[in-house]
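Regression test case RT-17, inverse folding.

Input:
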C-alpha cells in the first residue's frame, strides 16, 4: 500500500479530539472525515468534514478508521467497518461484552483486515523500556506485578464502571510487559458515587508462569496515580506512566556487616537507577504503529484477539467481585472455583 492512507475518525469526545489532532498531523496519512452526530461545536475536527453516520464516512473511500465513540457502540460500529472492508483502530476496551469482542475478532480476522485496540499504555515510554528490559532478562525471574491507577471521577464516563474503563489498562499492560496470560483472579469492588457501576476495585491474580499480580484501581481519589512495579530476583522496576519515568531498584550485591540484618536471608537495598529515555507522546506512537501495520511494515499493535483477552479478564474481575469466588481463566473460557 502506497503512502497517503485515507483515515476517518468516529467520535469527537474526550479521546476523539486528541485522535483528530494526531491524525491531522500524521505523516503519510490524510484525515478525510469525522463522524459525530453532535457535530463539532468546539472545532476539534481539524478542518475535516464532519459527518452524521458511519456509512457516510465509508462512502468517502477510507483505508482505516479510528473508533472513539462510547464503548457500548464499539461493536456496532466495528462490525459495519469490517463489512465494508475497512481496517480499524478501536479505543479500549474493544467492546463492552466478551461476546461482542469475539464477534469483532471474527469479523476482522475472517476478512484479513488489520485491526487493533487503543491500549495506550503499550506506547508509554516507561513501559516500552520496561518491557524490552524484561525481555532481555535484566530482572531475572519475575515474582510480582503491582499496579495502582487512581484519580478523581471522570465525568465523561457514563456507560461502564472502573473495571472496564481503567482496570483494562492494567490488565493489558501486565500481560504485555510480562508476555504472560492470567490464569486466575479474585476481586472486590465498591460503588460509592451513586452510579450503577463500580468505582473502586482491588484484585489479586496469578499469571501463567506463576507471577503474582495486584491491581488497585479507583476514581474516588483526589490523588492521580499511575504506578506499575515489577519485582524479580534482581530487583524492582517502577514505572510512573504520568511522567513516563522508569527507575530500577537493584538488590544489593554487597554483604552487610550489621548483625541484625545478616541473619535475614532475603534481599537488601542496592543502587537505584533512573533511566533517561526519549519521551514521545504515546498517542502519536500508537498512531504511527497502527499506520505502519495497515501499510504492512509493522505488526507492533494490540490485536483484537489480545483486546478480547483483556475483556475476558475484566469480566472475570466483575464475576469474582459479584460471586465472592476466585475465577480461573483460560483462553476463551471462564469458570469459578471455590469460595
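Golden output:
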Amino acid at each position: 500500500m502506497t503512502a497517503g492512507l485515507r483515515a476517518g475518525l468516529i467520535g469527537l469526545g474526550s479521546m476523539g479530539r486528541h485522535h483528530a489532532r494526531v491524525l491531522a498531523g500524521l505523516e503519510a496519512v490524510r484525515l478525510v472525515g469525522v463522524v459525530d452526530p453532535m457535530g463539532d461545536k468546539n472545532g476539534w475536527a481539524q478542518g475535516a468534514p464532519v459527518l452524521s453516520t458511519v456509512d457516510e464516512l465509508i462512502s468517502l473511500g477510507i483505508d482505516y478508521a479510528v473508533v472513539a465513540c462510547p464503548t457500548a457502540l464499539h461493536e456496532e460500529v466495528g462490525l459495519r467497518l469490517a463489512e465494508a472492508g475497512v481496517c480499524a483502530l478501536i479505543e479500549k476496551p474493544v467492546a463492552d461484552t466478551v461476546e461482542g469482542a469475539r464477534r469483532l475478532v471474527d469479523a476482522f480476522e475472517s476478512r484479513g483486515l488489520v485491526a487493533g485496540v487503543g491500549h495506550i499504555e503499550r506506547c508509554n515510554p516507561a513501559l516500552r523500556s520496561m518491557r524490552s528490559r524484561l525481555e532481555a532478562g535484566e530482572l531475572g525471574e519475575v515474582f510480582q506485578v503491582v499496579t495502582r491507577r487512581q484519580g478523581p471521577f471522570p465525568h465523561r464516563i457514563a456507560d461502564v464502571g472502573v473495571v472496564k474503563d481503567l482496570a483494562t489498562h492494567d490488565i493489558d499492560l501486565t500481560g504485555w510487559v510480562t508476555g504472560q496470560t492470567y490464569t486466575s483472579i479474585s476481586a472486590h469492588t465498591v460503588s460509592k458515587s451513586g452510579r450503577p457501576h463500580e468505582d473502586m476495585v482491588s484484585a489479586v491474580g496469578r499469571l501463567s508462569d506463576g507471577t503474582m499480580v495486584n491491581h488497585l484501581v479507583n476514581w474516588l481519589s483526589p490523588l492521580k496515580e499511575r504506578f506499575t512495579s515489577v519485582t524479580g530476583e534482581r530487583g524492582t522496576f517502577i514505572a510512573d506512566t504520568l511522567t513516563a519515568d522508569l527507575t530500577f531498584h537493584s538488590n544489593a550485591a554487597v554483604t552487610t556487616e550489621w548483625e541484625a540484618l545478616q541473619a535475614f536471608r532475603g534481599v537488601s537495598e542496592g543502587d537505584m537507577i533512573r533511566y533517561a529515555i526519549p519521551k514521545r507522546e504515546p498517542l502519536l506512537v500508537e498512531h504511527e504503529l497502527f499506520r505502519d501495520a495497515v501499510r504492512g511494515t509493522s505488526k507492533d499493535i494490540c490485536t483484537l484477539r489480545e483486546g478480547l483477552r483483556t475483556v475476558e479478564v475484566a469480566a472475570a474481575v466483575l464475576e469474582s467481585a459479584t460471586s465472592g469466588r476466585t475465577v480461573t481463566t483460560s483462553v476463551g473460557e471462564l469458570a469459578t472455583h471455590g469460595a
